[in-house]
Amino acid sequence: MARSWPMTSLPQAKRFDWRNLALRIASAAVLIPAVVVAAFIDVGWPYLTLIAVGVTMLSIEWGGMSAPRSPMRVSAAVTVAVLVVTVLAHQLAHQPYLILLAWGAMGVGALAAGLVARGVAERPADAAYGVLYIAPAAICLVWLRASNQGEWWTLMLFFVTWAADIGAFAVGSILKGPKLWPRFSPNKTWSGFVGGLACASLVGVLIAMPSALRIDVPRPFMPAFQLNLGAAALIGLAVGIATMAGDLWESALKRRFGVKDSGDLIPGHGGLLDRVDGLMFAVVVMAAARLANHLGWGH
Questions:
Q1: Closest Cα to residue 279, out of 27, 65, 95, 108?
Q2: Do 166 and 132 share a structural domain?
Q3: Which of 87, 108, 174, 266 sits 20 to 30 Å CA-CA off 53?
Q4: Is residue 6 part of a domain?
Q5: What is the pLDDT of residues 6-59, one digit of tens each?
Q6: CA distance 253 to 262
Q7: Residue at which a domain ends, from 95, 122, 146
Q8: What is the secondary structure of 31-68 as a DSSP string?
Q9: Structure pTM?
């Protein structure tokens, strides 16, 4: 009589996470109207209000994540410090050198937040770091939009960042392969990293293409973008790297604080910081690229 062996099912291959991809696309789609409004409106109080609301939410999430025993006090300290820096940057955005005062104020605000957190937070330095983490993005967002052709640079920032995030997730989920940084972010792969960079660079080129190829596109609101294709590709690449670096850095911070998400703005998918972690690094790189362009590179 032939011996029968127990039947064991083979492990099922992990299916493509369409829900997560849809969330990333939906997040970008929901933000598109706000981004377009921010790009077209003048650098006045409405624009400042948009940024102020964002940094306030980020500061609240930072307090809850870094100081769970006393989140209100730490959140308040970080919020006040970042808002002061943001308003100062807004007032000095058109002054080439005076805006450096905003960076100096950031250091003072970080020190003040750390002092306020003494005695109530496990690590008061985390409150100080919260200011240093959030404020640079706010300063650069204000300055970038206030610069010459700031409308285009602001649009390019957001679209390249979204391309890097969505491209990395889609390519990494399909191709898989070796992990990028398994210690802190076990789901990210090298294939996703390369795919995200390719998408970011391509979108940068697409944004600059009409002007670079001298294609006459109706522009009722904005003048033509003055950026050549080579510079656009390099900027897209650099911003893509910054986007994924910001994502990895936030993963490391969450691991350090022992939390899964930065907040619960989107039930089951985390807070605002989980959605804009890459953008916070990307805007600093984009501002540096804009400064280089102002000095003559990329025309």
A1: 27
A2: no
A3: 108
A4: no
A5: 444 433 435 556 666 666 666 666 666 776 776 666 667 888 888 999 999 999
A6: 10
A7: 146
A8: HHHHHHHHHHS-SSHHHHHHHHHHHHHHHHHHHHHH-T
A9: 0.85
